[in-house]
Structures are given as C-alpha cells and as structure tokens.
Design goal:
Strand order of the largest sheet: 9-8-7-10-11
Number of helices: 6
Radius of gyration: 24 Å
Distance between the termini: 78 Å
Helix content: 25-40%
CATH architecture of the largest domain: 2-Layer Sandwich
CATH topology of the largest domain: Nucleotidyltransferase, domain 5
Number of domains: 2
Shape: flat
Largest sheet: 5 strands, mixed
C-alpha cells in the first residue's frame, strides 16, 4: 500500500515519471498520479491539498522560457460581445447561444436528496460521516464538470476573437435574490471572467469590461430605450425603427458597442455608473 502524501508545499526533491504515471514526493516516496497534461520546464514547487471528498491534488509550479506575446491590435470586426445570464449561460453578439449544461439540474436535484438524508442522520455517527462524504464527492464532481465547460468556452473565445467584451456583473447583489441564488452560485460567472482574462493575456488578446448599469438589453441601436421590458420578455420590437430584438443577442451587441465606445472616446457609455440611462420620450402610446 503506497504512503499518503502530507498536505503542504514541497520546495525540492520532487520527481515526475510520465511513462509510469507517478510522482516522487520527499518522505512519501513514489505515488501514483493522474496528470491533467504534460508540461515542460523546471519544477519549482509542488503543493499538495486534500479535498473534502478525500481526494489528494497536487499543483505543480513550473518555470519555463515561454514569453507573453505582444498584444494584438484591437478592431471591432475581430471582437465579440458576451452576455451572461440564467436563461442561457452565454449569448454572443454573433447570435450563438451557449446553454447551461444539461447535467446541472439533475445534479442539483441529487444534491437536495443527499442533503435531506444527511439531515436525518445522527451527529457523530458513521452514517453521518458517509453521507457528508457523498455530498463532498458530488460537489467535487460538479465543480470539475463546470470547470471543464468554462475552460472549453473561454479557450474557444480567446482563439476565435482578438477582443472579448463582457459586463461587470454584480454577482453578490444578484445572489441576494433567494429564488435565483443557487443558480447564480452554480453558474461560475466570476470564474469564467478570470479564465478569460488570464488566457487573453497569455495569447496577446484583450478583455474589455463595461459598467454593470449599462442598459444593454433595453437600448435599441436607433436610440430608443425600452422602459417596459421585464425579465419575462425574451424578445421585443422597437416602435421607432421596427427592428425585432432577441434581448440577449441585443445585450451582447450593445456590450460590444459600449466597450469600444469607451475605448475610442475615453468617456462613459450610456447607463454606465455615474451617468443616468438615456431617456427617450418617443414611448409607445
């Protein structure tokens, strides 16, 4: 039986054998490992952590000779606006829609069942410990599946576009809505933004963030502002220019438009904090 590694940071003496799928840690010896990917460079440190599910994870810090590329020139033709939401995870200004993963609702339902079973167990009992570990394993699986989906989407956007424009969402404020809090927490919007920003930096690309109060889904390109739009309204027609809008696609295009307007003029776009949203007197009778 192989030794269990101690949690902590190993600054030296670490060896990795790719072909045999093992990693050597001082005092623990050779340990079987599943590597997420191969890497090149000098291993500086390895940090070992144990998750609540009982799994051990090793994070390897490597020094390599890769250089961060020079940022590419930004053009609106090579940019995309991204509107994040609860109806779809992301809607792009190109019209593409990325739905929330189908497994999410199923796993949330299973989580609810396991939590109910946990509540019926006796504190300090073995059954309670087993129930807690089942919940921890489910949480870990959900996190891993969400991370995988976020990595695939963020990598795809950074590869396809030179500039990704997003909105500065007030996640903490939105989570105060108890009816939506769980869905918001499971969406991973903050993690998605983090991935976009560091991947863009590594690739010489750009991420532009507009203010959270911009009226992205209400403002028609002609200037008409829809005061009557509710969360239940997925589409609407402009009474001035007669355009038909999908609210999420419109929001994504406005996010892109606002981001470049700020960049080119150096001024806040309509509805950005510090400026009242535009008011159009040409409202529907």
């Amino acid at each position: 039986m192989q030794a269990r590694p101690a949690e902590g940071t190993y600054p030296q003496g670490v060896k990795i054998h790719w072909e045999n799928g093992v990693i050597y840690l001082p005092k623990a010896g050779w340990i079987r490992a599943v590597f997420s990917r191969r890497f090149q460079g000098q291993v500086k440190t390895v940090t070992v952590n144990r998750a609540p599910s009982g799994q051990f994870f090793a994070s390897v810090l490597v020094e390599d000779e890769n250089q961060v590329p020079e940022p590419v020139l930004e053009t609106i033709d090579r940019a995309v606006g991204v509107d994040l939401g609860l109806h779809d995870f992301a809607v792009l200004s190109t019209g593409e829609k990325v739905p929330h993963p189908q497994w999410l609702e199923r796993e949330l339902y299973r989580l609810k069942i396991l939590q109910r079973r946990l509540a019926k167990t006796t504190k300090g009992s073995k059954n309670r410990a087993k129930a807690r570990q089942k919940i921890a394993r489910l949480h870990e699986r959900m996190v891993n599946r969400r991370q995988d989906a976020l990595h695939k989407l963020s990598t795809d956007l950074v590869r396809r576009f030179d500039t990704v424009c997003i909105e500065d969402l007030n996640v903490a404020g939105m989570a105060r809505n108890h009816a939506l809090a769980r869905r918001i927490a499971q969406s991973g919007w903050a993690e998605f933004r983090r991935q976009l920003e560091y991947k863009a930096t590594w690739s010489g690309k750009h991420v532009r963030v507009i203010g959270r109060l911009a009226p992205s889904s209400r403002l028609c390109p002609c200037g008409y502002y829809n005061h009557d739009l509710t969360l239940a309204d997925r589409q609407w027609d402009c009474p001035i220019c007669q355009r038909h809008h999908d609210r999420d696609v419109l929001a994504a295009n406005n996010i892109k438009r606002f981001a470049f307007a700020e960049h080119e003029t150096g001024r806040d776009t309509p509805g950005v904090p510090g400026e009242r949203p535009p008011v159009d007197d040409r409202r529907r009778p």
